[in-house]
Structure prediction request, 169 residues.
Amino acid sequence: MPPHLVRLFADDAQPESATLGVGRRLPSRCARIVARRKRSLVFLDPHEVWAIEAADRLTFVHTAHGKFDLDLSLAAFESSFAPAFVRVHRNWLVNLVRVKELESNGHESRLFIGDGVAESGRGLRVPMARDRLSEVREMLLTNAWGIRRRGHSTLLEDPEPIVAPVDED
Prediction:
């Protein structure tokens, strides 16, 4: 991998004196993802990314804006952006906050990632590896409320009620 690509994701890639104009410092970690579309560079915020795909020795980033080429491997991206991006298949990383559905029919499982839900939304379906299904399911259900978890006999604990302060005049 070319050294300039590796340095983009290193914590100490920028010297202490690096600035962006008067008094503005460069971030210590990568704040944006740079992808390619034909001859253009596309700058993406990590929260815009739905998933990262490896296919035919290439790496692609999927967003609401389209599919773009990345110069980094899936492993390099995973090590730089974990835990926000989780490997769900040997060829896929997903942004957990963008997952809208977990579909399972007994033989295979898939995630719908994007905007809205599968039938009415815009997004993509990502295959799930069988050996990662239970771990990813637990990650998705962490801090979620509304369904029974497998192996639990009761509903998930009720969240703390929100109590508005009372003004006493």
Strands lie at 33-37, 40-44, 49-55, 58-63, 66-70, 85-89, 92-95, 99-104, 109-115, 122-128. Residues 133-141 form the longest helix (9 residues). The CA atoms of residues 3 and 9 lie 11 Å apart. Confidence is low (pLDDT under 50) at residues 1-21, 24-28, 153-158.
